């Protein structure tokens, strides 16, 4: 029974994980096959890597910001006061249904390029605006995840907490939210993967990230084969970052369903 | 023992200095549905009172009134000098609930915490008790409910009866003056009912003031100082177990008591309840 289930699994695992090997392999083989191409690529690798670092920084910053705000909004969306609940619900619905690119454009062109605080000019770089542009939808998704998780906890847990003398806030802190954490981790990782892929959109507003770097490189080199390889490198990089996240999510979902 | 609750003259209804809980003419309705239609109840310190009666007669609601989980529309509720019906602020209700333990039909353990943490959480987080001393006390309680070896287990790994015994230990960890048992064996399979009743019996013998809503007639008869029969939101009769179970001249009570104790397995809650875990 168990082996029967595992048999196709090992097959598909090789197939799926093949992409890890295949993409770099294609890049490597073509670099070796044509040494001039390999030399060009080697030259541009540090530039591409610095771009990719920017993707990682934007993704992590946007998710951190989005998670903090989203978790807070998720709790507020269940507040007993309409005055709190309605604006939060409006925020969540509005930004959950807005294309990421639109938000990145909006934050880029609405915010100034520098801020004046007590006479000192602080630069407001484009990548920070992209972080905000992605943190907004991330916070809306996380708010929905948090709200759903809190609602999914049976009311008997609240009753048990109350019966022991917990206040609403204490019950939330010690009993409800810890249970939400486990339940919301898989959907949260989905958001993480989606936001990470969304960081490529920042190239459209001139942020020096991987896609932007690859475009720079292909424009400078002006070789079709190099252009193909450059974008393959971009794909491989995003795959390496996002695929483990989605695999881990699947595994956790399975485990939580079993638990 | 008389049939009209307003004219009852059972020994329990006499106001005494030792009364820990007193309900007088408590009325409560949820929307249009009248659940309690004038409940009178007195529980003396150290006594065990069982509330019996058909489903939907408001038994569980009485318990929820006592620890202020629900607020009655009228009537007086006094718990150890606190007028529960007059509490208006949540902080006052919380202060009351710290003194009154409650054990639910569905155990309601916290699934993300180990057995030990389930017990330790409330004393450390809301009473501010010191963690290590609380753990020592928690282990004593686990020994009392005969689950010493399960301290590190999670609720999901335990049987219903074991979970319910943890829930009892969790309630006791707050050192309550009074424990409310809300049909604590109704969700259990017959084999595990005994082990839970065993623990409760121990507790009552030690003098813990207890109010039990139960369908375990034989058990109620054995351990109660007073048995209260409720139906349709009213106290139909109250008195000693002997009066209710043996000497009742009320055909409704006789029918109810006889139907239950005769129809269900007498062995599992019988007089000679065996020690489930020698």
Q: CATH class of chain A, anyone?
A: Mainly Alpha
Determine the CATH topology of one domain in chain B: Rossmann fold
Helix content of chain A: over 70%
Molecular shape of chain B: globular
What is the rounded distance between the termini of chain B?
40 Å
Structural class of chain B: alpha/beta
Strands across the major sheet of chain B, in which order? 6-7-8-3-9-10
Going by CATH, the homologous superfamily of chain A would be MetI-like
Shape of chain A: flat
Number of helices of chain B: 9
Poorly predicted spans of chain B: 1-16, 262-278
Number of strands of chain B: 10
Number of helices in the DSSP assignment of chain A: 9
Oligomeric status of the shown chains? heterodimer
Give the domain tally of chain A. Answer: 1
Task: Summarize the helices and strands and which ones pair or pack.
The complex is a heterodimer of chains A (259) and B (278).
Chain A lengths: L1 H32 L1 H42 L5 H15 L3 H11 L3 E4 L2 E4 L2 H27 L2 H9 L4 H31 L11 H12 L2 H35 L1
Antiparallel strand pairs in A: 1-2
Chain B lengths: L18 E12 L2 E12 L3 E5 L6 H8 L7 E6 L2 E2 L6 H10 E4 L11 H12 L4 H14 L15 H13 L5 E5 L7 H16 L3 E5 L3 H7 L2 E6 L2 E6 L1 H6 L4 H13 L15
Parallel strand pairs in B: 3-8, 3-9, 6-7, 7-8
Antiparallel strand pairs in B: 1-2, 1-4, 4-5, 9-10
Helix pairs in contact in B: 3-4, 3-5, 4-5, 5-6
């Amino acid at each position: 029974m168990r082996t029967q289930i595992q048999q196709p699994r090992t097959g598909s695992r090789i197939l799926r994980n093949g992409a890890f090997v295949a993409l770099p392999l294609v890049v490597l083989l073509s670099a070796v096959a044509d040494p001039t191409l390999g030399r060009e690529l080697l030259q541009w690798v540090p530039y591409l890597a610095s771009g990719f670092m920017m993707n990682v920084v934007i993704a992590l910053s946007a998710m951190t910001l989005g998670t903090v705000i989203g978790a807070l909004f998720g709790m507020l969306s269940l507040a007993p006061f309409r005055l709190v609940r309605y604006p939060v619900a409006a925020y969540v619905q509005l930004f959950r249904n807005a294309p990421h690119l639109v938000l990145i454009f909006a934050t880029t062109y609405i915010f100034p390029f520098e801020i004046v605080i007590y006479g000192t000019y602080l630069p407001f770089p484009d990548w920070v605006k992209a972080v905000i542009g992605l943190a907004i939808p991330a916070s809306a998704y996380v708010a929905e995840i948090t709200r759903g998780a809190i609602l999914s906890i049976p009311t008997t847990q609240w009753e048990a907490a109350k019966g022991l003398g917990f206040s609403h806030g204490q019950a939330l802190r010690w009993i409800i939210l810890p249970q939400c954490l486990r339940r919301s981790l898989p959907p949260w990782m989905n958001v993480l993967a989606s936001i990470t892929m969304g960081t490529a959109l920042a190239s459209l507003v001139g942020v020096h990230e991987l896609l932007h770097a690859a475009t720079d490189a292909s424009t400078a080199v002006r070789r079709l084969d190099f252009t193909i390889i450059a974008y393959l490198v971009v794909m491989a990089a995003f795959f390496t970052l996002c695929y483990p996240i989605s695999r881990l999510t699947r595994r956790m979902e399975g485990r939580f369903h079993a638990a | 023992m008389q049939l009209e609750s307003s004219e009852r003259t059972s020994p329990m209804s006499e106001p005494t200095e030792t009364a820990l809980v007193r309900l007088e003419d408590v009325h409560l309705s949820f929307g249009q549905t009248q659940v309690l239609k004038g409940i009178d109840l007195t529980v003396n310190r150290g006594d065990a009172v069982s509330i019996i009666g058909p489903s939907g007669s408001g038994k569980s609601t009485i318990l929820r009134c006592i620890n202020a989980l629900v607020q009655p529309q009228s009537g007086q509720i006094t718990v150890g000098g606190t007028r529960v019906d007059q509490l208006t602020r949540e902080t006052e209700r919380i202060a009351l609930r710290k003194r009154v333990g409650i054990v639910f039909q569905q155990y309601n353990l916290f699934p993300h915490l180990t057995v030990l943490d389930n017990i330790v959480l409330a004393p450390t987080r809301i009473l501010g008790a010191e963690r290590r001393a609380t753990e020592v006390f928690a282990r004593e309680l686990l020994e009392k409910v005969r689950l010493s070896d399960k301290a590190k287990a999670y609720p999901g790994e335990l049987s219903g009866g074991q979970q319910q015994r943890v829930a009892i230990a969790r309630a006791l960890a707050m050192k309550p003056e009074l424990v409310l048992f809300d049909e604590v064996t109704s969700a259990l399979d017959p084999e595990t009912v005994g082990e839970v009743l065993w623990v409760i019996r121990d507790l009552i013998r030690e003098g813990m003031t207890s109010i039990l809503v139960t369908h375990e007639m034989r058990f109620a008869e054995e351990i109660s100082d007073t048995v209260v029969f409720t139906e349709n939101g009213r106290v139909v009769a109250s008195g000693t177990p002997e009066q209710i179970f043996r000497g009742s001249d009320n055909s409704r009570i006789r029918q109810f008591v006889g139907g239950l104790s005769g129809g269900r397995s007498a062995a599992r809650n019988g007089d000679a309840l065996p020690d489930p875990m020698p």
